[in-house]
Specification:
Two copies of one chain form a homodimer. By secondary structure, chain A is an alpha/beta fold. The first copy, chain A, contains eleven helices and twelve strands. The first copy, chain A, folds into three domains: 52 residues, 434 Repressor (Amino-terminal Domain), CATH 1.10.260; 121 residues, 3-Layer(aba) Sandwich (Rossmann fold), CATH 3.40.50.2300; 151 residues, 3-Layer(aba) Sandwich (Rossmann fold), CATH 3.40.50. Chain A is 39% helix and 15% strand. Chain A is elongated and about 85 Å long. Chain A binds a DNA duplex through helix 2 and helix 4. Chains A, B: Keywords: DNA-binding, Transcription, Transcription regulation.
Chain lengths: 343, 343
DNA sequence: TTGTATGCGTTATCAA
DNA sequence: TTGATAACGCATACAA
């Protein structure tokens, strides 16, 4: 079958150790020897057996990426970026979906699949305060998102509160006063939902606008569908928003859909702002105003931190939060386009 | 560090063989022995080392999934479904992105990463006729898509021509006569683009409508952006379509965006049909009429076929093409909604 | 029903 | 600069 190092060694008239040295780019090899080995490798069409190397070295070159689901466009784009970043560092990615189910989230941390990976980039939804000890795992872990803050691990996060506040202030600046929040998780004290709600309320407060609970729409998982449902709930309740701040773009697009189905004009009657800057929002009708949380940088940073740890980098857990920006589209300012040009 | 079978065996007072038997569910074990072993496993917090097992058995329980990129919503949803299906068969998935670059597509087939996987679900874009021999690989391979037809491997495909024809006939049935095609790959003889173009032309032909080259918009990669660009090209050329059949939903949404930016009404002035039935099209404004190609079934079938082959299933290469359907939305019939209810 | 011994293909130790 | 040889942790003939 497939050739082994033994075969190559025999053919090149050297020892397996020498073949190994060549394959791994060990510098002190006589050029003639190296050539003989490379020739033999080419002739036999040899490829290294990664499984054997993994067993011997205890490392696999694979990292895990755990997300809620790839059908959520933000996580699909994040996975794209993570795979890209990993590739450029010579790493392979295994994606696991937990769907926000606590049991799956725990299983991912402790399951035997972790023996297959050198480390994990972990974006939980169900885990929260009190679960810090679950993060005390015997392998490198980089946390994404805002569910757990004082875990013993590196953490790449978004500037949720600041960004949410900025988004809300932007709407206030447009003269909107009855701003709905879509994606609220009642009773939650940490997590993106809580932090974004904080930012939203802080902005209202600073502007002297009284928060109205009737304008807060709940949504567990942040899908288009749940965004539409939350929007419907707010409207059915009789609240009359003149703007919506949705906690992510999928929610925003679902909410916008619901508004339009009901004959409300976006942005004239209701302005809509999302969060995530997914590509979809550049082509929606109208295009979506959104917070750009720095997804690319989040992915690159997470991979870099994790890779460093897998190679033994010591030191205090890092906490990184890339800068954010607001991308303005037609969902808040009539006729404003965002398609081709910007980031 | 982590406990090994040796440790468990010592603690339980049995041999490693017995531990192995217990771990692997071998039936003929005395209950008392099994209990001792399970207790020892629990006490030591033992987990099997998958790398060692992989080396020993020559199988990894991992399958590869190669797609253009996860940022394309169809492939994100496909990956979701594949991971789900794999999970339910006890398999893990490694995703590789090739971006439609031929060099990457070849590398994926032959690279050393294949030693890490038991088989590959492979959806190429650049490979085509003449590349059949590249598919003659020493591991199980399931082909997705329409680039290569007579390869020596299992093949799960869409009913491209029939579905494209049905979509076009549907537009003709609405009275549209100047139907643009968006996503054309000029000169291509196989591939989704060619097959869908065939179906489109066949429908026109059968209806006695003369095909107009000015109505055919090129798009290499099928993104929202390229859809918008192709649509712009067609319009700038002076063609005056009353409908668009886009070869996938991303193109369709991009094209619809371009139409709307130019002040054309969808569907009144121009009706739009896509292909793929991604979730996004249920919430666009208007909602998107599209071909449902049976993504879930494609994913399940591909995983099932591959898993079978990895376990030694012999026999002729299979060719499977799930049935398709047309989902009608507001992009072709005013006021028609498709959100919550249907598949 | 359970134990012993061997090898999967690689890297690491040490010596030459 | 290179070679001989011992692990890495598990599964499996074969033996008991």
């Amino acid at each position: 079958m497939a050739a082994t190092m033994q075969d190559v060694a025999r053919r090149a008239g050297v020892s397996v150790k020498t073949v190994s040295n060549v394959v791994n780019g060990y510098p002190h090899i006589r050029p003639a020897t190296r050539d003989r080995v490379l020739t033999a490798i080419a002739e036999l069409d040899y490829q290294i057996n990664l499984t054997a190397r993994n067993l011997r070295t205890g490392r696999t070159g694979i990292i895990g990426l755990a997300v809620p689901e790839l059908s959520l466009p933000y996580f699909a784009e994040l996975a794209d970026s993570v795979i890209e970043a990993a590739e450029s560092e010579g790493l392979t990615v295994i994606i696991e979906q937990h769907g926000g189910r606590r049991e799956r989230e725990v299983e991912i941390l402790t399951g035997s699949r972790r023996h297959l990976t050198d480390g994990l980039i972990y974006s939980p939804l169900a885990l929260g305060p009190g679960d810090e000890r679950l993060l005390d795992v015997p392998y490198p872990l980089v946390l994404l998102g805002e569910r757990i803050f004082h875990g013993p691990v590196d953490h790449v996060t978004m500037r949720n509160t600041d960004a949410a506040r900025a988004a809300t202030e932007y709407l206030l600046g447009l003269g909107r006063r009855r701003i709905a929040a879509v994606g609220v998780h009642p009773g939650e004290e940490v997590g993106s939902a809580a932090l974004r709600l904080d930012g939203y309320r802080a902005a209202l407060d600073a502007a002297g606008v009284r928060p109205d609970p009737a304008l807060e729409g709940e949504a567990g998982l942040w899908h288009r569908r749940t965004g539409a449902e939350a929007m419907a709930e707010v409207l059915d309740r009789g609240a009359r928003p003149d703007a919506v701040f949705a906690f992510n773009d999928a929610l925003a697009l679902g909410a916008m859909h619901e508004l339009q189905v009901r004959g409300l004009r976006v942005p004239e009657d209701v302005a809509v702002v999302g969060f995530d800057a997914i590509d979809e929002g550049r082509y929606s009708n109208p295009t979506l105003t959104t917070v750009d949380p720095g997804r690319e940088e989040i992915a690159r940073t997470a991979v870099r931190l994790l890779h460093g740890r897998t190679r033994g980098a010591a030191g205090e857990p890092q906490r990184v939060a890339p800068p954010f920006g607001i991308l303005v589209g037609g969902s808040t300012e009539p006729g404003r386009e965002r398609s081709a040009s910007e980031p």
